[in-house]
Amino acid sequence: MNKASNIAAASNSNAAQELVRAMRPRQWVKNVFVFAAIAFSEDRLWQFWGPAGPAPILRMIGAFIAFCLAASAIYLVNDLVDIEKDRAHPKKRHRPFASGRLSPSVGIIAAGILIACAMPLAFALDPSMAFLGVLVTYVLVQGFLYTYWLKNVVIFDILVLATGFVLRAVGGAAVLAIHITPWLLLCMLLLALFLGIGKRRHELTLLEQGAGEHRLILQEYSVPMLDQMMSIVTASIIMAYSITAFLAPVAPQEPYPMLMVTIPFVIYAIFRYLYLIYQRGEGGAPDELILKDWPLATSVLVWGLTVLGVLLFFPN
């Protein structure tokens, strides 16, 4: 009995570990974009920590958690739909469902539980239901339209993924009922396109002639085409962010727009990412890349600290 109980316990522990892995907690870093609403809103930073205490900040953290729950549910559904295709991929075949280490039924149940937790949390954070509406839109677009249809439509497959970043920023604004500059949304969209194009390029170069067998949509792309798109988006990001920094209503404008000091960090981070894509063949997992490449991670961290310092120590 003891031996059988130990085997069952070990099996349950392994299943739990594989489930957590399938939920892709490393990709939760994408959800930090919900906090962008604070830095680039039309309201001062310290207004979010007033006499009532840190409640607004806690709501932002709650919004981050809600997006993490919803995103993990979408990852589970996406892996279940692509289980056969992932088995033909040199890296994705090691994923829990594709490798057979995790039962599909466990994934279905877990995805349902995650959604069932995310939606009530969204309503509790914002009874006006604005944030709930954003989260529902995110699930419908990313979890259903993309998974079952748009990921097989050329160009739209990249654009739809990019909208996920925009919805995160909008969700962060909705949960606090604040307005954010439209330039920030454009920056989010362009950054997401930048990462998405880099990921498609990595898949093409990794799979080479077998790319279409893994994912039919890859047959519609070529490396030269993606390189052209990358060039356009790279220049657009730098210009859009520069305008965002110059015009941000929350930042001091005298004697000059103070947020312009953050532009060099953005340029370095973009160029560093291009270096990793073109010289080191990276880019397949942007969320992991930013965590393991210390120059890239440092540039992002310094950018964030500089933005925070400008907003806190230079009154508008």
TrEMBL record:
PANTHER family: DECAPRENYL-PHOSPHATE PHOSPHORIBOSYLTRANSFERASE, PRENYLTRANSFERASES. It is a multi-pass membrane protein. The lineage of its organism: Bacteria, Bacillati, Chloroflexota, Chloroflexia, Chloroflexales. The chain crosses the membrane at residues 61-81, 102-123, 129-146, 153-170, 176-197, 229-250, 256-275, 296-314. It comes from Candidatus Viridilinea mediisalina. One of its GO terms (biological process) is glycolipid biosynthetic process. GO terms for molecular function: glycosyltransferase activity; transferase activity, transferring alkyl or aryl (other than methyl) groups. Keywords: Glycosyltransferase, Membrane, Transferase, Transmembrane, Transmembrane helix. The keyword Transmembrane applies. It holds the Pfam family UbiA. This is Decaprenyl-phosphate phosphoribosyltransferase. It is found in: Membrane. The keyword Transmembrane helix applies. GO terms for cellular component: plasma membrane. InterPro entries: Prenyltransferase (IPR039653), UbiA_prenyltransferase (IPR000537), UbiA_sf (IPR044878).
